[in-house]
């Protein structure tokens, strides 16, 4: 027993010695020890902290990066007993403390023994720029790219020489390009010659994009008057290049809104479009799908956090089955008694929608539930002068694939054949041996299930609350009626054209008026073509 | 305990579309002389249930706590809970029912300005008292209403000052939902900013419908507006459910708080509970209370709240504090007056000081607004706010000094003036407003 303890002690002593030597070696080379500067943060207000960070950045000590990073994340604490500053990470009810410079562990401490060092936005900006300077020469390519980005976002003349050194050493093309851009931006606020600044303006112009306009407009006030012409010409040239991209971006927004409308409406295209049921509970099926996603994510968080990025894929079948089952029960329990009585169906399904809403409110509470975005659905990427957000792109892809899948089911499967047979001529289908009541029930369940799947996708961009469905029900009916009742292609074209129309009206007349105008246009259109864009023709219509 | 069964019944009633009938049918059952009744008028179903249900719970908790301390004037308090179901005309109906049938001594309720405007004539006609616990646009002062939430000068103007001074903001986006609170607040803010020398071209005003969920165009417009080389900030009066998709879009389009900060007046701990706040760290909110306030009274309140709801994840927020202040002010005023008679309480409540949850006290002013400090908080990764600035207590200003229609009006409900809209220029009571 004792020998074991002694061994442990020796082991940790040895480790400690190694640590001290390895860390002490470089720190002897530095002129200033950064630790007192960091410890001074414990008593500094925001203004003083800003100065301290400037001094820390001036040391050029790359070991400070973790501390600065922790500070901007709000993970820097000082110990109340001795005012020493540590990086703290929550560990149960305690904090795990590490030294901000060496990274050595300083043991655990109770939460109330330390105080968080406060941070605000302007401090975060200062830190970002300081970190950029400190990590420009990092061996890791990703870190260098981030550093160049950071310098680009908060440029300062002080980083100029450092950037030039970094550029001369850089081998990676993308990182180098970013650094050249950052250098050009930083140069504008420096005291370099006018000719150099003129070249910098050209460099920025060649990169283009919205940010370049902002940089040039911001810098123009402090520049020599003789450069004003160059700046104006550069801005004008970027803007003319940007104009086409802006139109493209608007179309993209329209398609993206259209895909959301399509998602919301596609289940209704079956229950209302194909079966003719005025289904006011459609929105609640979407809501149930979103709540299924929430429950699935909750279970994954508790039991298998590693699977989180797969949570949506797992939620899809769950949502389909849950809402499909609810749809089946609603059809068997309520709607089948009301076929051919549209007004009563409307009232009954509205009642069902209220019951479902209040049930969810009683189970989960009235507040929003958090549904997380998997990492592959967060953030955005640039395409030329456009920004494409990942979640919107996936939702477009998703809604189109649901549309295709549904089309295949309707046109190629025997269930689809039965379904079309029953809706076209119920008595004939019945005479051919098709069990029409069950076809009705499963068609309704299919429509509801698809609404549930839509809910999985919508949980990524909207609130998950009991009211979720209400905000989509009007839009869904609008799309189905506009596209032509009973026609899936009509729903697709209707949703996309309404989306694009909305997005082209929005910038010029505003979101509120835009929505009203779209409604008015649809009403006028329905006056002209009562059966919508793609009207069904032939005997089926009269039946 | 009777109120519990009643709230349960009316919840069920909401679901079955029979809230009105079931609640009315139950009214007669609770006529006892040894209790003082107070009304709780918050939506428990419909779109506003998301915010208002919490306030109903807070009121029930406060009543239970007060009863533990022996009640008021030696009598137990009894909360009468009704569900106006997010339906503005129904608010007026329910208010009338609470006052005339249930004979409640005071009512605590309403959230939206529309619901308050709907019940205002009822309270004035039947001479009862309403405590309104939510931040609002001002431009109103009723003899029968106490506004314990923030007026624009207790929230919006200090927030804008903070951004201008501490963040150096020169360009402003005023984004709001299209209804009375954002419209009026933005009108006041625009006038205020222009009085501080901000050019009209540096202010962008944008309105969106209720529940707006597609923010792509607007967020990219904000980005465009912000790329003019001047520091830009968004002042958001976006209401309710529209906030979640708005913040999600901001995060996805990569707008960081360091670049374009958003300061919100309707986003509190409760709203953030439905969001992953990591991409939002640093965006701001201005309130008179945050759950993260470091005060003993707040720690105790949070503890009680967790015990009452039997859920230690439930957050507290600013309207809850306003309800807390309003309730305690009423209790103190009733005890001072020795009666729950409306006129006596209206006289005794002015000047009453009660502790607020940020560690100071709030006083009921003659204009029926209260004093409280303004806190600016930055959103943290855990969904709480880090307080970056706290002001001294500010008196709520009912008639804004920055709007031409109301700058000459003041309100003073003490005798002999007793006027909600006294015009200091003409020296007469009366003018715009109620």
TrEMBL record, chain B:
InterPro entries: ABC_urea-bd_UrtA (IPR017777), Peripla_BP_I (IPR028082). Keywords: Signal. Residues 1-31 form the signal peptide. It comes from the Bacteria. PANTHER family: ALIPHATIC AMIDASE EXPRESSION-REGULATING PROTEIN, PTHR47628. This is Urea ABC transporter, urea binding protein. It comes from Neorhizobium galegae bv. officinalis bv. officinalis str. HAMBI 1141.
């Amino acid at each position: 027993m004792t020998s074991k303890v002694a061994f442990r002690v020796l082991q940790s002593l040895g480790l400690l010695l190694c640590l001290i030597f390895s860390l002490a070696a470089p720190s002897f080379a530095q002129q200033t020890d950064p630790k007192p500067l960091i410890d001074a943060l414990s008593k500094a207000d925001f203004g003083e902290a800003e100065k301290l960070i400037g001094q820390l950045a001036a040391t050029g000590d790359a070991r400070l990066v973790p501390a600065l990073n922790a500070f901007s994340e709000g993970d820097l604490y000082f110990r109340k007993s001795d005012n020493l500053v540590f990086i703290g990470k929550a560990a149960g009810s305690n904090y795990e403390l590490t030294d901000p410079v060496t990274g050595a562990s300083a043991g655990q401490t109770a939460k109330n023994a330390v105080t968080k060092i406060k941070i605000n936005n302007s401090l975060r900006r200062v830190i970002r720029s300081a970190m950029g300077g400190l990590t420009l020469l990092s061996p890791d390519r990703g870190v260098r790219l981030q550093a160049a980005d950071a310098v680009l976002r908060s440029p300062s003349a002080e980083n100029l020489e450092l950037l030039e050194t970094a550029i001369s050493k850089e081998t990676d093309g993308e990182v180098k390009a970013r650094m050249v851009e950052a250098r050009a931006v930083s140069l504008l606020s420096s005291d370099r010659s006018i000719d150099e600044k003129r070249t910098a303006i050209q460099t920025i112009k060649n990169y283009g994009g919205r940010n370049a306009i902002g940089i040039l407009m911001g810098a123009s006030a402090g520049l020599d008057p003789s450069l004003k012409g160059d700046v104006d010409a550069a801005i004008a040239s970027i803007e003319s290049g940007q104009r086409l991209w802006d139109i493209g971006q608007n179309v993209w927004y329209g398609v993206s809104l259209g895909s959301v409308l399509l998602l919301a409406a596609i289940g209704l295209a079956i229950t209302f479009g194909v079966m003719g049921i005025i289904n006011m509970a459609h929105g609640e099926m979407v809501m149930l799908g979103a709540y299924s996603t929430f429950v699935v994510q909750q279970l994954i968080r508790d039991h298998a956090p590693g699977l989180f990025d797969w949570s949506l894929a797992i939620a899809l079948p769950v949502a389909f089955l849950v809402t499909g089952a609810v749809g089946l029960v609603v059809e068997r329990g309520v709607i089948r008694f009301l076929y051919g009585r549209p007004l009563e169906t409307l009232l009954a399904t509205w009642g069902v929608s209220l019951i479902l809403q209040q049930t969810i409110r009683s189970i989960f509470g009235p507040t929003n539930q958090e549904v997380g975005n998997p990492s592959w659905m967060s953030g955005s990427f640039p395409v030329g002068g456009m920004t494409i957000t990942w979640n919107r792109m996936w939702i477009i892809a998703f809604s189109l694939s649901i549309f295709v899948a549904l089309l295949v089911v309707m046109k190629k499967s025997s269930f689809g054949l039965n379904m079309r047979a029953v809706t076209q001529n119920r008595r004939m289908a019945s005479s051919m041996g098709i069990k029409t009541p069950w076809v009705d029930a499963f068609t309704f369940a299919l429509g509801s299930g698809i609404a549930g799947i839509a809910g999985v996708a919508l949980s990524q961009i909207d609130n998950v609350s009991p009211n979720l469905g209400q905000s989509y029900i009007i839009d869904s009916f609008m799309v189905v009626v506009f596209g032509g009742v009973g026609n899936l292609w009509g729903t697709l074209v209707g949703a996309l054209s309404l989306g694009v129309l909305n997005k082209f009206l929005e910038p010029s007349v505003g979101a509120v008026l835009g929505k009203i105008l779209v409604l008015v246009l649809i009403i006028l259109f329905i006056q002209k073509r009562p059966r919508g864009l793609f009207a069904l023709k032939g005997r089926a219509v009269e039946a | 305990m009777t109120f519990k069964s009643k709230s349960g019944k009316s919840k069920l009633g909401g679901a079955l579309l029979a809230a009105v009938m079931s609640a009315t049918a139950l009214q007669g059952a609770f006529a006892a002389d040894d209790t003082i009744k107070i009304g709780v008028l918050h939506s428990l179903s419909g779109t506003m249930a998301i915010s208002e249900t919490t306030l109903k719970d807070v009121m029930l908790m406060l009543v239970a706590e007060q009863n533990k301390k022996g009640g008021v004037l030696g009598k137990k308090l009894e909360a009468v809970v009704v569900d106006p179901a997010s339906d503005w005309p129904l608010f007026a109906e329910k208010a009338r029912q609470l006052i005339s049938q249930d004979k409640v001594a005071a009512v605590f309720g309403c959230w939206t300005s529309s619901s308050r405007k709907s019940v205002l004539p009822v309270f004035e006609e039947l001479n009862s008292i309403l405590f309104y616990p939510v931040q609002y646009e001002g431009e109103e002062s009723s003899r029968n209403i106490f506004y314990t939430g923030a007026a624009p000068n207790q929230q919006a103007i200090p927030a804008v000052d903070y951004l201008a001074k501490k963040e150096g903001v020169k360009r402003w986006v005023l984004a709001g939902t299209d209804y009375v609170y954002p419209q009026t607040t933005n009108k006041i803010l625009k006038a205020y900013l222009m009085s501080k020398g901000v050019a009209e071209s540096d202010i962008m005003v944008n309105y969106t419908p209720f529940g707006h969920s597609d923010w792509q165009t607007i967020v990219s417009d904000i980005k465009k507006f912000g790329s003019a080389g001047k520091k830009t900030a968004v002042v958001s009066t976006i209401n309710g459910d529209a906030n979640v998709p708005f913040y999600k879009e901001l995060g996805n389009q990569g707008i960081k708080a360091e670049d374009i900060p958003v300061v919100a007046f309707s986003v509190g701990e409760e709203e953030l509970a439905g969001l992953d706040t990591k991409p939002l760290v640093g965006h701001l909110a201005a309130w008179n209370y945050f759950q993260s306030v470091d005060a003993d009274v707040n720690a105790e309140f949070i503890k009680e709240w967790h015990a009452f709801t039997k859920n230690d994840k439930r957050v507290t927020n600013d309207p809850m504090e306003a309800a807390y202040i309003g309730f305690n002010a009423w209790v103190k005023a009733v005890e001072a007056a020795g009666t729950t008679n409306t006129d006596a309480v209206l006289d005794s409540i002015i000047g009453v000081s009660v502790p607020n949850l940020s560690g100071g006290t709030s006083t009921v002013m003659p204009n029926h607004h209260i004093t409280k400090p303004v806190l600016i908080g930055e959103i943290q990764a855990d969904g709480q706010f880090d307080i970056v600035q706290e002001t001294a207590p500010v008196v709520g200003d009912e008639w804004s000094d920055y709007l031409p229609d109301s700058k000459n009006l003041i309100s003073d409900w003490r005798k002999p003036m007793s006027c909600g809209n006294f015009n200091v220029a003409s020296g007469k009571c009366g003018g715009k407003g109620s």
